Amino acid sequence: MVVTEDGCRLWAAEAGHGEAVVLCHGGPGLWDMFGDVADVLAPRVRVIRWDQRGCGRSERRGPYSLARTVRDLDAVRRHFGLDRMVVLGHSWGATLALRYALDQPDRVSKLIYVSGTGLGREWHEHYERNLAARLGNSGARLAELKGRARTASEDRELAVLQWSADFADASKATGYAERMADPWFEINYECNAAINREEREVWRETELVAACRTLAVPTLIVDGALDIRPRWAVDSLQQALLSATRVVVDNAGHVPWLEAPDEFGSALLTFLHES
């Protein structure tokens, strides 16, 4: 258990030996779902997983902000005695990992940016259209659940339904989404709303491009080619970074390690041992 400087208890676990890779989950308000990633990496490196403040197995209390979560990530680093670390983030976690690398470049040996949404905010409208198209008739149930108070089981149903759109193969999408929801922890909607609101107010593409142009940390960007979040949103990040490699995983959506585990694992291990 990691204890932050303000006394918040964060769940964390480690496996393997060697170079330390700290995994930052998506959300905001979700929890670590990196079991399959850890299984691939742990035979070769030291893998550290954690649940962010208020999420999953961590203590459910705020405050919730990007800066606070960056400080919590640094508390994880200190707890495990790391001078430097590889930081891997998925989705919202990719935003967190990038922000940490910009704020603490001397603490980051490599950055792995998985299924992120880039430096701007224009992708949201396209995401909503793509979500509706991929859900098809199931979109009506999603809208119904979102529009009213829900039971705990309906909260889980809503998450599984929305997550199912994150996969390219419709025949397997619900199964993958159910796998992400097991074990199930309640989504922290307060955390989600607070950090998303802050991002809308302070996440400015022009300023971030300028900051990224000074970041010398070797970076791997991994995209699923069929992610419903438009991949062009990440282009300005790739172009701004001084040292970036990009791998696009064909026939995969937002969670490429479930749909294309061999290609995803190979991309990560090649980058970790050759960069």
TrEMBL record:
<dbReference type="GO" id="GO:0016020">
    <property type="term" value="C:membrane"/>
</dbReference>
<keyword id="KW-0378">Hydrolase</keyword>
<dbReference type="GO" id="GO:0006508">
    <property type="term" value="P:proteolysis"/>
</dbReference>
<dbReference type="InterPro" id="IPR002410">
    <property type="entry name" value="Peptidase_S33"/>
</dbReference>
<dbReference type="InterPro" id="IPR029058">
    <property type="entry name" value="AB_hydrolase_fold"/>
</dbReference>
<dbReference type="Pfam" id="PF00561">
    <property type="entry name" value="Abhydrolase_1"/>
</dbReference>
<dbReference type="InterPro" id="IPR050266">
    <property type="entry name" value="AB_hydrolase_sf"/>
</dbReference>
<feature type="domain" description="AB hydrolase-1">
    <location>
        <begin position="20"/>
        <end position="260"/>
    </location>
</feature>
<comment type="similarity">
    <text>Belongs to the peptidase S33 family.</text>
</comment>
<dbReference type="GO" id="GO:0004177">
    <property type="term" value="F:aminopeptidase activity"/>
</dbReference>
<dbReference type="InterPro" id="IPR000073">
    <property type="entry name" value="AB_hydrolase_1"/>
</dbReference>
<protein>
    <submittedName>
        <fullName>Proline iminopeptidase</fullName>
    </submittedName>
</protein>
